[in-house]
Design goal:
The protein is an all-alpha fold. It has eleven helices and no strands. The longest helix is centred in the N-terminal third of the chain and has 33 residues. Keywords: Membrane, Transmembrane, Transmembrane helix.
């Protein structure tokens, strides 16, 4: 007998927001917009000389407000939408696991809201150099910013699926890393190694290390969604290995812990633990690639072709990096392997989502 969860995993695209969800998102946007108007008024009165210039903090005020709204809305939305069609399985999770999942989802939405808002206003500053932000514009800009943040964040958590989780992971890692790159005090960091970004005692390093820690936490949450999807596909007879639905998510959990430890132990704090964590993450990646034909038996053939291509690219990168060849620098090697790992995760999730679908 096919359960609703199995049918959804095999034939359906995942949970779709209901009319109630759309209505709630609009009401939250209106409420956040009202708070934004008040917030903009307070900001304008507290700092009357604000402008969009690079040396003024209006972008930080806006980003901070957006982050707070995203945190509150994503937490409430992720908890509330656990009863929606396609999300019922989350109610069966142990309370501690659901709590960890919620925290990781909230952190990612909060940081993405902060970085996206800050980047947007910095771009606006380049187009409106020296434009003063009077009370009226402070109110209008904060209203729109906080309202849109609430609307987007609520709809995002209400549509949470494995594929959306992977998209959040990719966006979070890329945006956080790029932010650390462009704000680092050492423009020649790349001449040392990738982890050099996390060795400075400033905002840049906090962003880099925090991205790795939060990203690792998100990968562990990601593993819960993978376990649910793989269990459904195993029940449906699509995946044939009896233990794959347990082993693969467990390997992802280890990978997430290792990624978080890379940020917890920066290279200038504990080199041994930093390298051990980075090596452990790479090892889990290789284990997942090599064991795929066994643990993921039943996945589309094209997936295995692509996974072998990722394995080949990884091995080629190692060959080009070894001292005997020396074609790659350490920084280039780290970035390439990092990109291959998260690129493979994206491909894996895409094929996992269509594994049981009929052509």
């Amino acid at each position: 007998m096919t359960s609703p969860r199995t049918a959804a995993a095999v034939d359906g695209p995942g949970p779709v927001p209901t009319r109630r969800t759309e209505s709630e998102a609009v009401y939250l946007a209106l409420g956040a917009g009202g708070l934004g108007a008040l917030y903009g008024l307070v900001v304008a009165l507290v700092a009357p000389s604000l402008s969009l210039a690079d040396d003024d903090p209006f972008a930080l005020w806006a980003a901070g407000g957006s982050a707070v709204v995203a945190a509150v809305v994503s937490a409430a939305g992720y908890w509330r939408t656990r009863n929606q069609p396609g999300q019922e399985w989350r109610r069966t999770l142990p309370s501690w696991k659901f709590t960890v999942n919620t925290i990781s989802v909230v952190i990612v939405h909060t940081v993405l809201a902060f970085l996206a808002t800050y980047a947007l206003y910095r771009v606006l500053a380049l187009g409106f150099i020296g434009l003063p932000v009077i009370v009226f514009w402070a109110v209008v800009l904060m209203t729109v910013t906080l309202g849109l943040t609430a609307y987007i964040a609520y709809l995002s958590v209400s549509r949470m699926t494995t594929q959306r989780m992977s998209s959040l992971l990719m966006a979070f890692i890329v945006i956080g890393t790029l932010t650390a790159m462009v704000t680092t005090p050492d423009p020649q960091w790349w001449m040392v190694h990738f982890s050099q970004l996390g060795t400075f005692d400033n905002l840049s390093s906090w962003v880099f290390n925090g991205t790795l820690i939060a990203g690792g936490l998100l990968v562990t949450t990601f593993a819960v969604y993978i376990a649910n999807d793989m269990s459904a596909l195993t029940e449906a007879g699509v995946l044939t290995h009896p233990h794959g639905a347990k082993v693969v998510p467990a390997l992802f959990v280890v990978m997430g812990v290792m990624l978080a430890c890379v940020g917890i132990f920066p290279v200038d704090v504990n080199l041994a633990l930093h390298n051990l964590s980075a090596s452990g993450m790479a090892a889990m990646f290789l284990v997942l690639l090599i064991s795929g034909p066994i643990l993921l038996r039943g996945m589309p053939r094209t997936y295995f072709v692509s996974s072998w291509a990722f394995l080949g690219a990884t091995l080629l990168s190692v060959i080009l990096f070894v001292p005997a060849v020396g074609y790659f620098s350490l920084t280039a090697f780290e970035i390439i392997v990092f990109a291959l790992i998260f690129g493979w995760i994206a491909v894996f999730i895409r094929f996992l989502g269509v594994a049981g679908q009929r052509d």
